Amino acid sequence: MAKIIWSKIDEAPALATYSFFPIASKFCAAGGVELEQSDISLAGRVLAAMGLAEDELSKLGELCVKPEGNIIKLPNVSASVGQLKDCIAELQSQGYNIPNYPENPANDAEKEIQAKYSVCLGSAVNPVLREGNSDRRAAKAVKNFAQKNPHKLRAYAENSKAAVMHMEGNGDFYGNEKSVTMDKGQKVTIALNGKELKTIDAVDGEVLDGTFMSVKALRAFYKASIEEAKAKGVIWSLHLKATMMKISDPVMFGHAFEIFFEGVFAKYADTFKEVGVNPNLGMSDLEKKIKGHPLEAEIKAAFQAVVDSDSPKIAMVDSDKGTTNFNASNDVIIDASMPVVVREGGKQWDRTGAALETLAVIPDSTYGMFHAEMVADCVKNGQYDVSTMGTMQNIGLMAQKAEEYGSHPTTFVLTEGGKVTVSAADGTELMSFDCEAGDIWRMSRAKDIPIKDWIRLAFERGQIEKLPVVFWLDENRAHDAQMIAKVKKYMPEFNTAGLEIHILDITAATRFTNERIRKGLDTIAVTGNVLRDHLTDMYPILELGTSAKMLSIVPLLAGGGLFETGAGGSAPKHVEQFLNEGHLRWDSLGEFLALAESLRMIEQKNPNADLAAVTAALDVANQAYLDNNKAPGRKAGEPDNKASHFYVAQYWARALASSSNAALAAKFAPVADALEANEAKIMEELMAVSGKPQDIGGYFHPNDEKAEAAMRPSATLNAIINAI
Hints:
Elements: E1 2-8, H1 11-29, E2 33-39, H2 42-49, H3 56-64, E3 70-73, H4 81-93, H5 108-118, H6 126-129, E4 134-138, H7 140-148, E5 163-165, H8 173-176, E6 178-181, E7 186-192, E8 195-202, E9 207-213, H9 215-232, E10 235-238, H10 248-260, H11 262-267, H12 269-275, H13 282-290, H14 296-308, E11 316-318, E12 323-324, H15 334-343, E13 347-349, E14 355-361, H16 365-381, E15 392-396, E16 411-413, E17 418-424, E18 429-435, E19 440-446, H17 448-465, E20 469-472, H18 478-490, E21 501-504, H19 506-518, E22 523-527, H20 529-544, E23 550-555, E24 561-565, H21 572-581, H22 589-605, H23 609-627, H24 641-657, H25 662-677, H26 679-687, H27 704-711, H28 715-722
Parallel strand pairs: 1-2, 1-3, 3-24, 5-14, 10-14, 15-22, 20-21, 20-22
Antiparallel strand pairs: 4-15, 4-23, 6-9, 7-8, 7-17, 9-19, 11-12, 13-14, 16-19, 17-18, 23-24
């Protein structure tokens, strides 16, 4: 039997899995495909790190480099230190004998514990599984539905003051970058003042970049941005990605926190040192550290006075609770936060809950340029029209930990000033940098085989779609100059006949794409790993209302497939609502679409009439789900995620009952009849729990029996499904 691995993960998609997995398993089995769960949740990975559970993530990593690999990967938590500590505390409360996470290890034993836990931090899952490049686009049915049923985008005010501010290459990662392409495989050593920081094995044809963020320039930039926001009378907001960029971005966040509240940090410096305040962890952690201190109330009041002074106003994460942009480094994640700024007419919320124009601060200009052009375009040309706008399809370089998203092991916050050198084993100095203490230095890498595959995939999709293929590469950026040479080298090896091909810098590529989108035209954006992430949230959120509705296919280099569902995270607010009210508003459309693509891949490799029928019927069910608007409602009392699964099961069964496959038609006709005849009763049973608090025995590590009972409350539906 062919097998699909379904990832067991965290938060909202994990809850949805308790309901949908039993349904999907029964239907797939009818096509000769077995579904199996693999626990790569944060709790599962913590227990594995401590030797108390199987290391499922490593097993999946091994499967990704085999031709039979077929994995449906739902969004998981990219844990911050705060989330990791909460997860550990929950597991301890459940009786697991695991140590606390030592933030500042005082001895070798604590250092060892920290090292074990460190594999659970940040984006620990995706780099292991992403052994291929990324093909992300909206399915035609989904795009058509969005155009016919447009969600709301807020208009931009005339003379809007919304803008993005970045460092423009002055002391940032973009400006300081150097890059080389290796002409042979050999060891490469990064050293600071002659002392080794790291030695890596570089391969032939690999692109290596070195760069650094000057902390002096960064702090000066933050001060200038605060003055700019004051002068314009707009909200100041900071947009980073401290989850994925787990070494660099928390530090950049910490510097912003210190600069914004400079007076408070100066006044209470001794107290903060005494209690171990780490600005990189934000206000929530600072409040924990000063709890019970004689100066606690005074310090809190000092911070609040700065917020209340509105000089400038600061963006809020939760106006009702008084939670600012500085609460925690992982509260505002750029690929999720900037699409909201663009969607909401260039606005964010102040402490009173008012939506006001913002100055979005994105220090590094490498990606700041994209967001700056997105906002500038809307300020100039007005908001997009969902009912007519074209689509952006993305081909993203991702395989083998490409570029910045694989740079954590070679990122260093420098403990002293001096010279950072990158030298090859044969004695060649590849690059050198004059840095100061506290600067953030990093090396990014991109291997030749993934780059060539990325170029192939771009032209392949271009030929299938007959759309312009735009490489987002800037000849003035050191890394991109090396990538442009690769594109030109490999282009003749692929079928480019009749294709419109462009190589444009980030601002020009954004402008080109947006001009086409406003005319209702579609474009293929071929980008590096970070822009893949940013574009595949920005455009789907504008086009579809969410990035969770994107098809996200990773053709693995070994021949298998990784099918990712949704790019929009694991929706903790959905879980909060579910626990309080028994209503889960997570939309499983991403899972439905991914499952269809996963089944299709198996059927294409090993043609099978039963599987072809099951796959075709799921396509019909997905179309019916959209046409009949069965997506979950946002409020308790409306049909939720559980009801959406019931309707997909009903449509899937009816499509099979109507299929030309006689055996499957006979098998599923009674199922379809039962689901249709009992619809009112099933919906009544599903809705009976709406508005009631749910106890599932844990947040990061729920009790499976309790969670399944909460997500499968219809005895009638369960009996019909279990009997298939």
